[in-house]
Write a structure and sequence with these properties.
mainly beta; single chain; 7-stranded mixed β-sheet; 4-stranded antiparallel β-sheet; about 120 residues
């Protein structure tokens, strides 16, 4: 499964940004999908996840500011971020769990595939 993120760039604090991710496989609609980020000097962390039933999960620190969604007909995943802060500066990664399992308590339970990442800078 190939995943390609786009939409990264620079945004002013308080602004909004939507990141798309496109998958290569036609079976995308069965996947649990997740967004992760890696801030400078820190480990990769969960942002949000959505499974094939539409069930979503968000990192507690980001609830209310981010929305994950998917368009199965376009094999696409989205992350909308609002009221952005300098602390949101990170590389954002799209990830896929092709096992068909539902989203777990933290993120998709069996992530195997990652995109290359897209840089988001908030100033």
């Amino acid at each position: 499964v190939q995943l390609v993120e786009s939409g990264g760039g620079s945004v002013e604090a308080g602004g909004s940004l939507t990141l798309p991710c496109t998958a290569s496989r036609s079976t995308y609609n069965t996947y649990c999908m997740g967004w992760f980020r890696q801030r400078p000097g820190e480990a990769r962390e969960v942002v949000a996840a959505i499974d094939n039933t539409g069930t979503t999960l968000y990192a507690d620190s980001l609830k209310g500011r981010v929305t994950i969604s998917r368009d199965n007909s376009e094999k696409s995943l989205y992350l909308q971020m609002n009221n952005m802060e300098a602390d949101d500066t990170a590389i954002y990664y799209c990830a896929a769990d092709a096992s068909g399992r539902p989203v777990g308590s933290v993120t998709c339970p069996h992530i195997l595939y990652w995109g290359q990442g897209t840089q988001v800078t908030v100033s």
